[in-house]
Design goal:
58% of the residues lie in helices and 0% in strands. The chain starts with 13 loop residues before the first helix and ends with a helix. By secondary structure, the protein is an all-alpha fold. Helix 1 crosses helix 3, helix 2 crosses helix 3 and helix 4 crosses helix 5. This is Transposase.
Length: 135
């Protein structure tokens, strides 16, 4: 069994899953402490412990999980071209691309690419807080 993950976004390896479950069940640490140590949600640790209690076996990561899809060079060109035509943000740019170029590119990927090439600004956390607050 391979404990190494090729994807840097995966926070829990098979070894860390076993460790987390053992800390909760054998050492008696709280789920919150374990979750903070591994930088995952408390709910995720609860799920892993529940699976272990039900099956008696440690949960194993699925190596065939859905792979991350990256933008193609053609899609990057379309985004640049559409941005130069309209100067829209990612949400409106997505609709512009669908109408003009007949391609559906997810808005979050458009925004990430615009950030990468310096055509968009990251949204500040302050702005996100004010959007969420009711008036």
């Amino acid at each position: 069994m391979n404990d190494k993950s090729s994807d840097p976004m995966v926070k829990m390896t098979n070894r860390r899953i076993r460790l987390g479950i053992d800390w909760v069940l054998k050492k008696g640490e709280t789920v919150d402490e374990v979750a903070n140590n591994f930088k995952v949600s408390t709910r995720r640790i609860e799920q892993l412990v529940k699976i272990f209690k039900e099956t008696g076996e440690y949960p194993v990561l699925n190596p065939n999980r859905r792979p991350k899809v990256h933008l193609t060079d053609e899609q990057k060109e379309i985004i640049k071209q559409a941005y130069n035509e309209s100067y829209f943000g990612a949400k409106m740019l997505r609709h512009h691309i669908i109408k003009r170029h007949k391609q559906n590119i997810p808005q979050n990927k458009i925004h990430a690419y615009l950030l990468e090439i310096g055509l968009a600004k990251p949204e500040s956390q302050e702005t996100e807080k004010t959007k969420a607050m009711p008036i």
